[in-house]
Design a protein that fits this description.
The protein has about 300 residues and is of the alpha/beta class. The chain is about 25% helix and about 25% strand. The chain has two domains: about 200 residues, 4-Layer Sandwich (L-amino peptidase D-ALA esterase/amidase), CATH 3.60.70; about 70 residues, no CATH class. Strand 2 and strand 3 form a beta hairpin. Helix 2 packs across helix 3 and helix 4 runs antiparallel to helix 5. It starts with a strand and ends in a 23-residue tail after the last helix.
Length: about 300
């Protein structure tokens, strides 16, 4: 799995088994999941046709799940909790004539059985309702909310209810993330770019918002490092040149890439921002050599697809 975003669209790419309640949803294999911002007075009579045209312009195949929102992509919240990643845009309006949508995409790097994928939708809905209650809203959602649950890898989780290993991570991320996303959309918290949150167990379980600006650990790897991709969009890459599975204090194992410097190399970061579809092997060649791995040759640069947000 990997993800990136432009000024109006979040793209998540991979080889997913997925379930969607969105436009032309269902349960199927997809390679692209995206959330696209449209004007509040979006007049499109054929929203699925609109999504098809958008994905075709990106050069991606027809195997996709697409969502639409009136929320600006700068208010996107991205949350990482072990093997679960959640992407949320959220807007709620009390007036019926105003646009409002809560879109939630859940990605698991560990497999979910088909039943668990559907159960995860129930878990997301409950967590969303709790979040709205915490903010003082009487509603449990909006008329146009959508959820996508997707996973990669072998089936490892048969259940995704809120007390299961997968479900409790999904529940906590959604319950926390919906509140943060709404606060940003409503202007209570101001951010110029999407917000990144990491679940930390150090000093007690809590969520941490990661920001490159003013990081107290800089430079944590080497002088002159770049930090825009500190929480790598390739995670977990499963590339043994770059990381390994280690025991997790939360139980089981987790992919550790603490020794990987690739996404901190200035030349690699520049290349990823210009070419977000570049495969990992191509980025390894851009750098030329990775500590602890064999030497890599140069690669022919790709054509630019437009400047992406950091």
């Amino acid at each position: 799995m990997r993800y990136y975003y432009t000024r109006d669209t979040l793209f998540v790419r991979g080889n997913f088994s997925a379930a969607s309640t969105g436009i032309h949803g269902g349960v199927r294999k997809v390679s692209t999941i995206f959330n696209h911002t449209v004007p509040a007075d979006f007049p499109e009579p054929d929203p699925f046709g609109y999504l098809e045209r958008l994905i075709a312009r990106e050069g991606f195949g027809p195997d996709f799940f697409g969502l639409l929102t009136a929320v600006d992509m700068q208010h996107l919240c991205i949350l990482h909790f072990d093997f679960i990643a959640v992407f949320i845009t959220a807007g709620v309006q009390q007036e019926a004539e105003k646009s409002h949508t809560i879109n939630i995409i859940v990605l698991s790097s560990q497999g979910l059985a088909p039943g668990a994928q559907l159960e995860a939708i129930i878990t997301v809905s409950g967590a969303k309702a709790e979040a709205l209650g915490c903010l003082g809203y009487a509603c449990t959602g909006t008329p146009t909310d959508a959820v996508v649950i997707a996973c990669e890898g072998k089936e490892m989780h048969e259940f995704a209810g809120p007390v299961s290993e997968a479900g409790k991570r999904i529940h906590d991320a959604v319950q926390f993330g919906v509140q943060e996303a709404i606060r940003r959309h409503e202007g209570r918290i101001e951010r110029k770019t999407p917000s990144m949150f990491i679940f930390s167990r150090y000093g007690g379980d809590h969520w941490v918002e990661w920001k490159a600006e003013g990081c107290p650990y800089y430079p944590c790897h080497f002088a002159g490092q770049r930090c825009e991709l500190c929480y790598c969009p390739f995670y977990p890459c499963r590339d043994v040149d770059l990381g390994e599975d280690v025991e997790s204090i939360g139980g089981g194992t987790v992919w550790s890439c603490s020794r990987c410097m690739l996404m901190h190399r200035p030349e690699v970061v520049d290349y990823v921002l210009e070419h977000p579809e570049a495969p990992l092997g191509e980025l390894k060649k851009i750098h030329g050599r990775i500590p602890g791995s064999r030497s890599m040759g140069k690669t022919k640069p790709r054509k630019k697809k437009g400047k992406k947000l950091p």
